[in-house]
Each structure stands twice: as C-alpha cells, then as structure tokens.
Amino acid sequence: MMSVVPSLIRSFFAATALLFTAQTAVLAHAALEQDRAHANSTYKAVIKIGHGCEHTATTGLTVLIPDGVIAVKPMPKAGWTLATQTKAYAKPYDYFHSTLTEGVREITWAGGNLPDAYYDEFTFQAFIAKDVPADTKLFFPVVQSCEKGRHDWVEIPTVNQNPHDLKSPAPSLLVVAAQVATPQSVKAGGMIITAARSRVTPAGAPVAGGYLTITNGGQQDDRLVSASIEIADKTEIHEMATKDGVMTMRTLPDGLVIKPGETIELKPGSFHLMFLKPKRPLVEGEVLRGQLAFEKAGPVSVEFKVEGMGGNRAAPSPGGGGGHAGHVH
Ligand SMILES: [Cu+2]
Questions:
Q1: Distance 243 CA to ligand 1 centre (A)
Q2: CATH of 29-176, one of 3.30.200.20, 3.40.630.30, 3.40.50.720, 2.60.40.2230
Q3: Residue 248 Cα, ligand 1 centroid: separation in angstroms?
Q4: Which of the residue ranges 72-76, 120-124, 307-311 would you say has the lowest mean pLDDT?
Q5: CATH topology of 29-176 equal to that of 186-307?
Q6: Cα–ligand 1 centroid distance for 257 (angstroms)
C-alpha cells in the first residue's frame, strides 16, 4: 500500500503537467476571441496576446486582413501608435448601398510595451462580405514584435493538415452562412424579424409591398434605415395613415425607430416597405432575397415570401397591390 500513494501522486502530477503544457501551448498562440462570424455581417475582431517573445515585452503588432473582410476600422490603444495600409480588394464588394473596391488591409499597433507577464487585446471592426461562402476559413496573419525577437503567427494549414499541428498558426475565423430564414425569424443584434412577405402583382405593376414584423429585443433604440430586394432597384420605407378620413402615404426618409421591447408590424394600411418598379410580376409562392439595414444591428438578410391576394393578414385594400391602389409614387 505504501508505494501506491506516491505513485498515484506521481501520475496525478504527470497528468497535470501534461494538461498544463497543452493549455499553455493553446494560450500561447495569437488567437481571435470570436472564431466564428456570419457572412454579410459586422464582425468585431479581438486578437488576444498572451505572452511576449523570449520573455521580453511585446512592442508591436501587425495584422494582415484577408480578402472578403472589408470596411476594416482598427481601435486605437492608449500608449500605442496606430497605422493602417489601404490596398485594393481582389474584387469589388457590396457594402450597404455602396461598392467598396479598397480598404484597410494591414494594421500596425507600434511603440507600446506589453510585459511578457501581462495579457492584452488588439481590436478592429470589420464586415464579412456577403459573398464569402459558408464554411470558408479566413486567416489573419499576425506579426508580433518584442524587445527581443518576434513571433510570426502566419502559418496557414494545408487542406490535410491539422491546424493544431502548426507551431505558429495564423489566427483564423470560420465564416458561417449569412442569416437567412423565412418564415422563421431572423435575429441580428437585438432585432428579431419575422413573417417577411410580399404579394403577387400583376404585370406592369408600379410597386409591390413588403411586410414584416420587427421586434427590438435589445436594450437600446434601433432604426430601420433602409431595405432592398432583388427584383427592384429601389425600396422605400412608407407609412400609410388616415388623415381627415383620407388614406395618405408618405415616405419615411429617416427610417423607422424601434424602441427596446417594442414590436412594429409592417403591414397593409400601416408601415410597409415599397418596392419601386418591380422588374417582373411577383409570383405566388416564390421567395425573394432582400436585405434590411439597421443603424445599430447592421445589415440583415431576409427572404420575402410572396403570398397570393387571398392570404390577407390585415385589412383588405380595395384595389389590391398591398394597399396602394390609387397612390402615385
Ligand atoms: Cu407605399
């Protein structure tokens, strides 16, 4: 019996030592705090630096931005000088209602002093382009400079390589599919979008209506700033109201504010989206890809299901067309 206890203790310490080594190896890498992001969404990248080089302080950090990561804005750090390099993208990318052809491709924080015994984070904001396919792994090579020596976190695994086998892996981000789901709800930030739909239109109809329900499940006001749909070049946010017994409609140039906890229904005879000059008639049962843009929650992909005229969810409108009969745009 006497000899069993020490050997148990020995094996316990051996196992602990192994665990500790493995853990240290993982923590030692430069890594991204969030290693998953949706395509077509804003991404806050936080690079974690857990140690220096050869036990000396970190004095500089450079990050390279891969293709598909656009509209990059680094966060300044007290005690560090921030510099960026803007270069052309491999191809133009849609970004809200504009097209970006270039942007920040390299960020350097320099002149700081992060002792080996301390931990710090380097942050930038970015947008993962809409056309980055799901399951793409994006790599952000990082060069860490220290008082003595440097670490090049730049290794990118080949197809058959286990990333854990790499000595100095570049931080990576897995892109998951853009959030698109209807008639289920879509969540973005605190915003919950349900029942996005449109209605059949006759050939040559000047407009088509877009309807949906938005709930602000967050803590602060947000604003639906704009919307778009694949079959129209322009979409407006409208409000229909009865004034002195007359139905009037107006565009909401500043969008639609949704307060925390509030649910707003965009429906016939009320708030709605207006797709101007649809390029073709809308057919019952089809699903149209669209996008909403919120001031804070950012862009959200939404699918609008086209319903027949019989499927009214709200007050019927005399002339059809989503409650816009007789309205001149
Ligand atoms: Cu309208």
A1: 16
A2: 2.60.40.2230
A3: 9
A4: 307-311
A5: yes
A6: 18
Distance 316 CA to ligand 1 centre (A): 15
247 CA distance to ligand 1 middle (Å): 11
Residues with CB under 5 A from ligand 1 (ion): 238, 249, 274
Q: How much of the chain, in percent, has pLDDT values that exceed 70?
A: 83
Please report, for the chain, the start and end positions of each structural domain, with discontinuous segments joined by +: 29-176, 186-307
Which of 304, 282, 307 has the alpha carbon at shortest distance from 291?
Answer: 304
Report the pLDDT value the prediction gives residue 215, as an integer from 0 to 100: 92
- CA of residue 236 to ligand 1 center, whole Å: 8
- Taking the centre of ligand 1 as the mean of its atom positions, its distance from the CA of residue 208, in whole angstroms, is 8
300 alpha carbon, distance to own chain's centre: 8
pLDDT band at 310 (very low <50, low <70, confident <90, very high): low
Instruction: State the distance from the centre of ligand 1 to the C-alpha of 237, rounded, in angstroms.
Output: 7
Contact 226, 238 (CB under 8 A): no
Residue 225 has which token pair? 């700033």
Continuous segment of H or E residues that includes residue 315: none
Token code pair at residue 5: 């206890």
The architecture that CATH gives domain 186-307 is Sandwich (2.60)
In whole angstroms, what is the distance from residue 76 CA to residue 65 CA?
A: 17
Dump pLDDT digits (tens) for 91-110: 999 888 789 999 999 999 99
